[in-house]
Design a protein that fits this description.
Elements (H helix, E strand, L loop, with lengths): L7 H9 L2 H7 L8 E3 L2 E4 L12 E4 L4 E4 L10 E2 H9 L6 H6 L5 H13 L3 H14 L4 H13 L3 H17 L3 H14 L4 H13 L3 H17 L3 H14 L4 H13 L3 H17 L3 H14 L4 H16 L15 H17 L24 H6 L16 H8 L6 H23 L5 H24 L3
Antiparallel strand pairs: 1-2, 2-3, 3-4, 4-5
Helix pairs in contact: 5-6, 6-7, 7-8, 8-9, 9-10, 9-20, 10-11, 10-12, 11-12, 11-13, 12-13, 13-14, 14-15, 14-16, 15-16, 19-21, 20-21
Length: 463
């Protein structure tokens, strides 16, 4: 590798390294590593590969190589060079990166949070930024910095920090933490295709095919709206490669083939989708997919056999046999649970709900009382018994509305449904202590703003 000029001492140090120890120091867990003999495969942390385990480490030779041609790690090299690439340091600083030095980041974080607890968010900012500089691989601190950026109306900076934390968690196999952050990313940029693609990959890795299908459908619909069939097709193929059992990916691929007038390929995709839906006992969607295939090829003997197989499955499990729309939906009880939980969070965080406060649009969470005057002086609400009243004119609502201009009514409704469903994952992170109280407050208020923005934008849509 041309990037580093290695000395004899570097070669000796590399020979002394324990590859498994190095990977664990980099944050990889046992379940995120695939071992086959002397070879270990992990998701590449250099080009942040969330789809496949493309980084190969030879534990005997203490070397590495990424299979992705455009990755900085593709040329490969010694393990010491991988560590230098990962921490973005010179090879002379690899030992310090692995084994550390005096940790100044904890003190900086403590000082920053002291200012935050006083409502002095601008004063807290340099401390959290320095804490991340001292310990760039501390995702928890990075998420705190992202939340602080939100408080300071720096949404793009918050998105960048959350995305970096999410990618690091995902590469190391900490999928629950990754999920909660990606949900926040969707809230910050509702039309972000990259975040939705990664969510689809993530849900597939977590064994949640319906949730993966929901995100994948959004990505495909987005590409098709702008007549980018290649992008839509690639998204389907990536999901199929990651999760061949995904009925939804094959179904959407069939739709794409049908729109491109490739009838034979469309039928094949619909057929595979039907088989996958039957295996997963999703007989309603299997009926929908089979009907689309049969409409294109009514005399197809394989489809007739498949219809008989599906009929037998439905007869054995009639409760699963009703045809359904492909789009997932949120039930009224789930929506009520979401609204109730937002109120519960307010009580837990002692932010209070004022009975005299303005009411949010119908079906949306209530809002809390206006902030104290002292908070306004510093540009953000203090940690007291009150938080800002979120009105349609709130800056956060305006930020979110600006990202919704290109969304049609169907996309809006899908987004609203996803908002409710995905909040469960953010709630889990808070209850497990991944998010602090003030972070949860900031995120919760953006969720409220998001609800209001969706409602306002939906009202502007033609009937």
């Amino acid at each position: 590798m041309a990037r580093f000029d290695l000395t004899d001492s570097d070669y000796s140090f590399n020979a002394s390294l324990d590859p498994m120890m190095v990977l664990k120091k980099m944050g990889f867990t046992e379940h995120s590593m695939y071992t086959e003999g002397d070879i270990v495969r992990v998701h590449c942390p250099i080009h942040k590969d969330l789809v496949r385990k493309s980084l190969i480490v030879d534990t005997v030779e203490r070397t590495f190589k990424c299979q992705y041609a455009n990755c900085d790690a593709h040329e490969g090299g010694l393990l010491i060079e991988l560590v230098a690439l990962y921490y973005d340091v010179d090879v002379n600083d690899v030992s310090k990166a692995l084994f550390g030095e005096e940790d100044k980041s904890a003190d900086l974080l403590f000082r920053g949070e002291m200012f935050i607890n006083q409502g002095r968010h601008q004063d807290a900012l340099p401390y959290l930024e320095q804490a991340c500089d001292f310990n760039p691989r501390d995702e928890i601190t990075r998420c705190k910095l992202a939340a602080l950026y939100l408080e300071l109306n720096r949404k793009d900076d918050a998105y960048r920090e959350y995305l970096q934390a999410a990618e690091s968690y995902a590469i190391r196999g900490e999928l629950d933490k990754t999920l909660s952050i990606y949900n926040i990313l969707i809230m910050l940029q509702p039309g972000a295709v990259k975040a939705r693609k990664e969510l689809a990959f993530l849900f597939s890795r977590m064994g949640r095919p319906d949730a993966a299908a929901e995100q994948l459908k959004w990505v495909v619909d987005f590409y098709m709206k702008y007549n980018q069939q290649k992008g839509a097709q690639e998204a389907c193929e990536q999901i199929i490669e990651l999760d061949p059992s995904s009925g939804m990916a094959h179904y959407l691929q069939g739709k794409l083939m049908q729109q491109a007038n490739k009838r034979v390929q469309a039928v094949q995709s619909y057929e595979q989708a039907t088989r996958n839906f039957i295996v997963s006992e999703d007989y309603g969607r299997a009926q929908t997919s089979l009907a689309d295939a049969t409409a294109l090829s009514p005399n197809n003997n394989r489809l007739k056999e498949l219809a008989s197989q599906l009929a037998e499955a439905i007869a054995a499990h009639p409760e699963h046999g009703n045809p359904v729309k492909i789009d997932p939906t949120i039930s009224a009880s789930e929506e009520r649970e979401f609204i109730d939980w937002l109120q519960e969070v307010d009580e837990k965080l002692q932010t209070g709900f004022s009975g005299q406060a303005n009411q949010a649009p119908a079906g949306l969470p209530g809002v809390s009382a206006p902030p104290a005057a002292a908070a306004a002086e510093h540009g953000a609400p203090p940690v007291t018994s009150e938080t800002a009243d979120i009105s349609p004119e709130d800056r956060r609502v305006a930020l979110i509305l600006s990202d919704m201009r290109e969304l049609d009514s169907d996309q809006l409704e899908a987004m609203r449904q996803q908002l409710i469903g995905m909040f469960t994952d953010v709630r889990k992170s808070y209850e497990e202590g991944v998010l602090s109280d003030w972070e949860m407050r900031t995120i919760k208020e953006f969720y409220k703003s998001f609800c209001i923005a969706v409602d306002l934008h939906r009202r502007k849509q033609p009937a």
